[in-house]
Amino acid sequence: MRSHNCGELSAGDLDREVRLAGWVGARRDHGGIVFINLRDRYGVTQVVFNPERLSRDDFEKSAALHSEDVIQVRGRVTRRPAGTENPRMSTGEIEVLAEGLVLLNRCAPIPFEIDEAAQVSETVRLGYRYLDLRRPVMQRNLILRHRAARTAREFLSEKGFVEVETPLLTRSTPEGARDFLVPSRLDPGKFYALPQSPQLSKQLLMVSGLDRYFQLARCLRDEDLRADRQPEHTQIDLEASFVEPEDIQDLVEEMVARIFQTVNGRPLERPFPRLTYQQAVDVYGSDKPDRRFGLEITDVTELAAAGGFEVFRKAVAAGSRIKGLALPGVDPSVTQLKGYEEKVRELGARGLVWIKAAGGNFQSPVAKFLGPEILAGLAGKFGLEKGVIFMVADADRKASLLLGAFRLMLASDFNLVPPDRFCFLWVVDFPLFEHDEESKRLTSVHHPFTAPRPEDLDYLESEPLRVRSQAYDLVLNGTEIGGGSIRIHQAELQRRIFKILNLEPAAWEREFGFLLAALERGAPPHGGLALGFDRLLTTFLGLPSIREVIAFPKTQKGACLMTGAPSEVSPEQLKDLDLRRIS
RNA sequence: GGGGCCGUGGUGUAGCGGUUAACAUUCCUGACUGUCGAUCAGGAGAGCGCGAGUUCGAAUCUCGUCGGCCCCGCCA
Fold first, then answer.
1. For A113-126, what is the HEC assignment?
2. Which helix (H) or strand (E) holds A392?
3. A176: Cβ under 7 Å from strand B?
4. A292 close to A418: Cβ distance less than 8 angstroms
5. Are A482 and A518 in contact (CB under 8 A)?
6. Strand B: positions under 7 A of a protein C-beta atom
7. Residue A133: phi, psi to the nearest 5?
């Protein structure tokens, strides 16, 4: 149907007789001559309809073409007349003089223009996603996604990893996110769960001796959506036997660098820095620090409590720490600073103390309590000549986390995030457990199959919160793009963990009995990681939302605006599944 | 579960107690043989997401509801 695509013709093809097919883009009708931009996935080529070159019939058809009609053109490649070349088009030196035109399909009126510049609300875009995906940017995103996936597959294949598909219909397990459930028709009243990740499957493949597994795996979680979260997302999931954390980290760094090269066309600096969980929280107030800018958190408890500010003294006496960060070079208004006091309270702080510094002078609501020496001392501690110091007093960890959230707010408000920077880091040495307020019990920070660090094993029962895990997260620009761990490969240790998590033995034997049985039968030491593929691409491409790299995403309420999913089903379908609505 | 922002011709916006609901673009008609965001002339197209209420009067105010987006919780 076509001899060339719309992006490949150039001055090297002059005089060639060609056939092109594609969509009618911008049309310029001069009465006696008609120009159109013919577009396909590969590019845009100008086609000229001149009545001297084609039949009267075809010329009249060309004048009646509409945007997004699908046509086939036969014609000759010619150099554009001097002065009419278009340097903004890769095919701008040439044009195709049409000698024949076939209208392959008409296009009904469309809700928005297929134009890079057109501003269209996401609601409308999602309602006509096939048109939205006709836009070159979206095609670029999907193509880069494909190339990245291909790079990952090639890389892992080279390294001896075997791609294995794991079930979509699996067993619901108690830990973790809410499951999507699928009712069983053959066994009424029972349900499959869609996998939140292939975690257990891949561990079992290690027990099988497959040694190295990977999968571009769809993961499904029935939780609330965000800009970086969809109910189904794709992970580059991998697992290997006889490995230590560094083996996985090195491998993943190499792979991520290669994907980055594919997508962004340049190399990455390696190795990625490593930060312990404790350092990350202390310095950045987050377990996924954004290190594209400074604003590091400093503990100033001793200095700040030494002054006459009662609030600080009392807080410290009650066990709080005073921490702060400095915003250099700025001169915000008092109104703006008061606004921040309010915002930080909304984050859960009891208050926010600010000190404006400029050339040795200080302005602060608490200046008279702290006194000149302490003010100067704080400025020195933060290395601040001119700018603002912000401080909070709260329990150690809470103070850090508050400032961590505040830090992101400031970076965004004062435009401190440099564009086109990619700050990767590993966060390691996570605690194995954390205390869950709601259920009043211990829960796993990662998942219950994560191995503790061997040197902390003795504290498992006595001081479980002190136990660190062999888990590692890969963080990029403040986004967690991957996480993994060395897994527990011994049934006995796995049972100890279940016990500490306060799971009933009967329950875990029922839910995870198959895993324990497998671990008892020659399970090798193993570990792995999963990379959030959609997030990785979103961040690499600097896009605002994960939806930009997913062909058919859901809205925040989990709906597909194009198909109308989720939808009601017929009474017959429900009956087959032994289901009935109760509300 | 909670907080915030937003729903006005096909699309993107303006209007924020009394307007013939404005602008741009798309679309339609006509003119035009070198345009490329073509140009020029003319025309069509919304009663303001939906429902109550306040008011002499509501796109503008209030409440509810539906939908979209951002965030907290949640997401091992």
1. CCCCCCCCCHHHHH
2. strand A386-394
3. yes
4. yes
5. no
6. 1, 10-13, 25-28, 31-39, 67-76
7. -75, -10
- The percent of chain A in helix, strand and coil, each rounded to the nearest 5, is 35, 25, 40
DSSP 3-state of A330? coil
Measured CA to C1', the nucleotide nearest A195 is B76
How far apart, in whole angstroms, are the C-alpha atoms of residue A449 and residue A458?
18
* Average pLDDT of adjacent 10-residue blocks, chain A of 583 residues: 96 96 95 95 96 93 95 97 94 96 95 86 95 95 98 98 97 90 96 96 98 98 96 98 98 98 96 96 95 94 89 92 94 87 85 91 92 93 94 93 92 89 96 86 93 96 95 96 97 95 88 95 98 97 96 96 94 94 80
The full length of chain A comes to: 583
The tally of CA atoms less than 13 A away on the side-chain side of residue A374 is: 20
CB atoms within 10 A of CB A494: 22
- A130 dihedral zone (left: phi>0; alpha: psi -120 to 50; beta): alpha
**Confidence at residue A492, expressed as pLDDT on a 0 to 100 scale:** 96
The dihedral built from the CA positions of residue A12, A18, A22 and A27, taken in this order, carries a sign that is: positive
Q: Is the CB of A535 under 7 A from strand B?
A: no
Cβ burial of A268 (10 Å; 0-12, 13-18, 19+) is middle
Interatomic CA distance for residues A322 and A378, integer angstroms:
12
Is the CB atom of residue A557 positioned under 7 angstroms from any atom of strand B? yes
The answer to whether the CB of A102 falls within 8 A of the CB of A65 is: no
Question: Helix or strand or coil: residue A259?
Answer: helix
Q: Whole-angstrom Cα distance, residue A103 to residue A553? A: 32
At residue A484, the pLDDT reads 97
pLDDT of residue A342: 84
Q: In what order do the strands lie in the sheet with A424-428?
A: A162-163, A212-220, A232-241, A526-532, A479-486, A471-476, A424-428, A274-276
Q: From residues 72-111 of A, list those within 7 angstroms of strand B by Cβ.
A: 80-81, 83-86, 88-89, 92, 95, 109, 111
Beta strands in A4-69 (DSSP E): 17-29, 34-40, 43-49
Query: Which residue, chain included where needed, has tokens 């990977």?
Result: A214
Please state whether strand B lies within 7 Å of residue A232 at its CB atom: no
* Degrees to nearest 5, angle at CA A537 with A536 and A540: 85
Q: How far is CA A106 from CA A24, A64, A68, A102, A474, in A?
A: 10, 11, 8, 11, 49
For chain A, how long is the longest CA-to-CA vector?
94
A561 touches strand B (CB under 7 A): yes
d(CA A493, CA A501): 12
Distant-in-sequence, close-in-space partners of A401: CB < 8 Å, separation ≥ 6: A281, A285, A286
Give the residue from A17, A124, A120 showing the smallest Cα distance to A75. Answer: A17
Q: Report the predicted TM-score, pTM, of the whole model to 2 decimal places.
A: 0.94
Query: Does the C-beta of A175 come within 7 A of strand B?
Result: yes
Reduced to 3 states, what is the DSSP secondary structure of residue A572?
Answer: helix
How far is CA A354 from its chain centroid?
Answer: 34
